[in-house]
Design a protein that fits this description.
Length: 119
């Protein structure tokens, strides 16, 4: 069961940002690139610990549409064809709360793999 329920979800396509407000007053602006590289799908996360697949070249990715999944999640469709991630409310909340740490981890992983992110 989700501990955090969104009260508002707004996609700002021109800025490539998903803005989400929660019932506890938290509000996050999550870049589409960040959501894409941290997709909860098996394609990105793998099927177990250590099987994560580093996503590269996602700087310009955007969300084309968002479908609600029951009363617990959303399923965004990205313009690079990725549409298998189901983001539960708690997953989105966690991504918001841990944005700085997760983003730095992603940049560190890119660098360690020899990839340079486009500015």
């Amino acid at each position: 069961m989700n501990k955090h329920i969104p009260t508002e979800i707004t996609l700002h396509k021109n800025r490539r940002i998903l803005e989400i407000a929660f019932d506890d007053g938290q509000r996050f602006e999550l870049p589409c690139e960040y959501l894409r590289v941290y997709s909860p799908s098996a394609e990105v996360q793998g099927h177990g610990p250590g099987q994560e697949v580093l996503q590269v070249g996602k700087e310009d990715v955007n969300i084309e549409r968002i479908e609600q999944v029951g009363t617990y999640a959303i399923a965004p469709s990205f313009d690079d064809g990725h549409e298998s991630g189901i983001y539960a409310w708690d997953t989105l909340y966690d991504l918001g709360v841990n944005y700085e740490k997760n983003w730095q981890n992603y940049l560190d992983r890119l660098k360690a793999a020899g990839h340079e992110r486009k500015a």
